[in-house]
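Regression test case RT-17, inverse folding.

Input:
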């Protein structure tokens, strides 16, 4: 990420609009990218008698010193090892997770609960004395021997909201891992729900002050635009007549009719993001 920020001009990157997302391990990586700091690093990265320290997060690529901020993360069935690190940034999070996921926990649990010790799997049909002896030695499942418990999407969402971050969680009741594909790795309809939800969540992140249409209490023909940094705006009315308009307001006469009436404004915010707002009567 520091490489991309360093080369922002070359690759035409708006460094104010950085998003990250992924599924499973990719979601874990994205959450770590946004929230992990050196003091949150797992002990396994800090070296021991048998392995070297992997180095501080900021010194892995010493030629790039740029800072960066992740605006929002799409967390698809991911988790974090340290829930307190959510306090490190105001990054927004949209999460998707099945509450019966046995690979990456939805709550607080060990990952890979579906994965048993490979030695026991290899010897599960071997009832010899030697095999029984080996299986007794490896009585602890491999995931519990090599990993710590992790905090899944339900707790990430809860902590994010508690810290004032914008966060949205979609829980798939009874869902397992990889909600976007079937057992044959073909896309399922839920994939498109995820795609559309992430798109809307990310776009909304770029609109911190959305516009609204309000009727002027002192002039019943006048409708004003509130909020937003507007670059251009277009007014439209159904069952009415626009007398005059500009970026901030319009004078509109609604026709006496039993049909529904609607005022529609569309255009672009100052940052180029489009908008469409309706006021129905």
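Golden output:
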């Amino acid at each position: 990420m520091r490489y991309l920020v360093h080369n922002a001009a070359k690759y035409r990157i708006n460094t104010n609009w950085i998003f990250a997302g992924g599924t499973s391990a990719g979601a874990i990586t994205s959450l770590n990218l946004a929230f992990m700091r050196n003091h949150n690093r797992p002990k396994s990265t800090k070296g021991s008698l048998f392995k070297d320290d992997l180095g501080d997060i900021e010194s892995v690529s010493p030629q790039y010193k740029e800072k960066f901020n992740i605006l929002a993360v799409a967390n698809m069935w991911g988790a974090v090892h340290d829930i307190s690190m959510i306090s490190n940034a105001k990054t927004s999070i949209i999460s998707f997770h099945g509450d019966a996921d046995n690979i990456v926990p939805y709550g607080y649990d060990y990952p890979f609960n579906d994965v048993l010790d490979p030695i026991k799997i290899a010897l599960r049909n071997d009832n010899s004395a030697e095999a029984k002896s080996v299986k007794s030695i490896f009585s602890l499942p491999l995931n519990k021997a090599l990993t710590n418990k992790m905090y899944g999407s339900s707790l990430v969402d809860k902590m994010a909201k508690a810290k004032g971050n914008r966060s949205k969680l979609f829980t798939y009741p009874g869902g397992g891992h990889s909600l976007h594909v079937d057992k044959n790795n073909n896309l399922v309809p839920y994939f498109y729900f995820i795609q559309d939800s992430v798109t809307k969540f990310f776009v909304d992140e770029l609109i911190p002050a959305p516009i609204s249409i309000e009727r002027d209490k002192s002039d019943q023909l006048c409708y004003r635009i509130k909020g937003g940094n507007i670059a251009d705006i277009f007014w439209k009315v159904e069952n009415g007549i626009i007398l005059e308009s500009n970026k901030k307001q319009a004078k509109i006469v609604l026709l006496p009719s039993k049909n529904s009436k609607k005022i529609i404004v569309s255009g672009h915010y100052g940052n180029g993001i489009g908008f469409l707002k309706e006021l129905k009567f």
